Task: inverse folding
């Protein structure tokens, strides 16, 4: 491509809170993200770290009335999403930005054939007739590796992996610029996981779709993505290319995360784990959210949230360790 | 569910078969009966009054079920009265289910203000006895077939609304509804094309059960003189007219009574049967 790579998605200072009867939950705290055209970004973090909330706020589908976006802007193709009305947003969803869901067993409507469900996407966005959209639905099924004649089958006649393929077909039906995959393989067994990952990878390359891959499976990230953001308690703690982050993790949380992967070869040891338990989003610590569990915690960490330290052109971490260690060497 | 499986379940469900056959017999009788029988439902023949059932002694020309105090053939009146009852029940159930479904979906889908408003109106209405409510409306509007249908719609929509609201609340939080919203579906599309097809089973069951109930209510109102106006036969009015002759000519009351009971039982069986067929997991 000749023209410079545009940012398909840009999130600036996004904060999201959930207001419930039990108090205010800070789900996301001032995160920044950028995804370029055709780029695949991984978003890792443990359960409750705000990954899905990020995805939902991009689609403007935070659960109402509890979920409130309190701060920040989201740009989609350099257009501010907050400024457009609900009707236009509906036209964007499924058409130019789309999503694949975690559980293929529940994300398809049981009373419609898969053909009808895929064709509804065409009917909603392209104002297509029933017959034409069914033909297109058949084509989409073939793209995801399901024989065309199965458009007349109901979801319960498919296996989990097949249903996730249908989910992918629905997500990619209108050839979106941004595809959000929210743990698309969590509900599947390992061999099927690989197939689905390969399929997403292949289609993402083929259609030049930007991908936001939400998962807690680090293997999937390394297989599929070029850049990765690590989330902890609603903040992004480390960002960089997959190679840099996985080969040379800098933030203590990322280091802990990678250390806690079980090793298949070598001596059998007890699995290393990060001490303590995940931060309670109802009662987050001041300063760096990770300090209560951090082996390198300093006094400063307890007061202020550390700024992003650029470790290389494409690698940064939010940690005071590096300002102290290599203050002069930071490469902007 | 494939067609084969559907048929297998239908045949295996005793309730469905029994209810279906009974309903079919009743429908055929009330549609074909008055054409076959030689008598007219509203022609009086005072010399033949209060004749006891002759059964088939004179073939179809005689008074098979006997005559009433005005010498009208009871069986003919039974069939013609059944037509009125079924017609009223049909329109009332259609109207009530459409109104109730719409209200229930509104309440269940949008929740909050809509839910409070619609369901409180429903609660208030349910706190008043249905028959009493119907009598009040009937005395305001006057007795006619059209008014009866309006009364029935007003008194049945709540039952549909309550069931639908619960179902919709359950369905609307399913992931596939969320998925279709993410894929750009509007509220209208989600309500009518994603949620509604998922609640048809309870809707069909309720419709067939309410059908019997409405026939019963119509008979009760007609019995009290608030229903179908006089010369036109209806099961309720027939029972009402015949009750003076209960000791001397009991058949006048017994015939419409049995017809009424059979119809209500048939529709209740059909309703249970449909539920067994469509949703075998839901055992009460």
Result:
């Amino acid at each position: 491509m000749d023209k410079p790579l545009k940012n398909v998605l840009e999130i600036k200072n996004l904060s999201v809170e959930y207001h419930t009867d039990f108090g205010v939950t800070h789900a996301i705290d001032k995160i920044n993200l950028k995804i370029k055209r055709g780029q695949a970004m991984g978003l890792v973090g443990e359960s409750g770290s705000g990954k899905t909330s990020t995805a939902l706020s991009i689609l403007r589908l935070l659960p109402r009335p509890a979920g409130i976006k309190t701060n920040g802007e989201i740009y989609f193709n350099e257009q501010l999403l907050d400024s457009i009305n609900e009707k236009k947003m509906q036209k964007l969803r499924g058409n130019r930005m789309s999503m694949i869901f975690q559980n293929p067993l529940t994300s398809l409507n049981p009373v419609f054939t898969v053909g009808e469900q895929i064709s509804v996407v065409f009917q909603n966005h392209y104002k297509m007739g029933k017959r034409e959209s069914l033909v297109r639905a058949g084509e989409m099924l073939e793209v995801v590796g399901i024989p065309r004649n199965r458009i007349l089958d109901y979801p319960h006649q498919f296996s989990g992996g097949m249903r996730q393929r249908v989910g992918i077909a629905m997500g990619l039906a209108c050839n979106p610029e941004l595809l959000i995959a929210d743990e698309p393989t969590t509900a599947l067994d390992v061999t099927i996981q690989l197939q689905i990952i390969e399929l997403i990878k292949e289609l993402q390359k083929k259609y030049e779709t930007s991908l936001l891959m939400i998962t807690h499976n680090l293997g999937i990230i390394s297989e599929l993505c070029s850049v990765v953001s690590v989330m902890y308690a609603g903040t992004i703690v480390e960002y960089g290319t997959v190679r840099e982050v996985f080969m040379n993790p800098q933030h203590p949380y990322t280091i802990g995360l990678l250390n806690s992967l079980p090793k298949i070869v070598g001596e059998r040891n007890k699995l290393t784990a990060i001490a303590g338990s995940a931060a309670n989003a109802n009662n987050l610590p001041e300063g760096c959210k990770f300090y209560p569990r951090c082996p390198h915690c300093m006094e400063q960490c307890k007061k202020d949230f550390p700024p992003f330290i650029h470790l290389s052109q494409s690698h940064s971490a939010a940690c005071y360790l590096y300002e102290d260690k290599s203050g002069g060497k930071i490469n902007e | 569910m494939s067609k084969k499986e559907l048929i297998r379940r239908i045949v295996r469900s005793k309730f469905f078969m029994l209810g279906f056959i009974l309903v079919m017999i009743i429908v055929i009788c009330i549609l074909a009966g008055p054409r076959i029988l030689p008598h007219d439902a509203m022609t009086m023949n005072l010399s033949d009054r209060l004749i006891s059932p002759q059964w088939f002694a004179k073939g179809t020309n005689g008074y098979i079920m006997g005559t009433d105090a005005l010498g009208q053939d009871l069986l003919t009146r039974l069939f013609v009265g059944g037509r009125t009852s079924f017609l009223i029940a049909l329109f009332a159930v259609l109207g009530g289910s459409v109104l109730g479904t719409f209200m229930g979906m509104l309440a269940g889908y949008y929740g909050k203000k809509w839910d409070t408003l619609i369901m409180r109106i429903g609660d208030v209405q349910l706190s008043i006895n249905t028959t009493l409510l119907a009598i009040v409306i009937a005395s305001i509007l006057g007795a006619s077939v059209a008014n009866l249908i309006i009364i029935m719609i007003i008194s049945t929509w709540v039952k549909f609304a309550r069931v639908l609201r619960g179902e919709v609340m359950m369905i609307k939080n399913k992931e596939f509804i969320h998925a279709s919203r993410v894929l750009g579906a509007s509220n209208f599309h989600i309500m009518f094309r994603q949620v509604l097809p998922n609640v048809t089973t309870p809707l069909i069951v309720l419709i067939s059960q309410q059908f019997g109930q409405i026939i019963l209510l119509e008979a009760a109102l007609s019995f009290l003189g608030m229903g179908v106006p006089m010369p036109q036969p209806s099961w309720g009015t027939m029972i009402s007219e015949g009750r003076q002759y209960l000791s001397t000519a009991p058949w006048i009351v017994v015939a419409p009574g049995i017809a009424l009971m059979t119809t209500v039982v048939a529709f209740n069986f059909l309703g249970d049967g449909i539920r067994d067929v469509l949703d075998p997991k839901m055992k009460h």
In short: Chain B is about 70% helix and 0% strand.
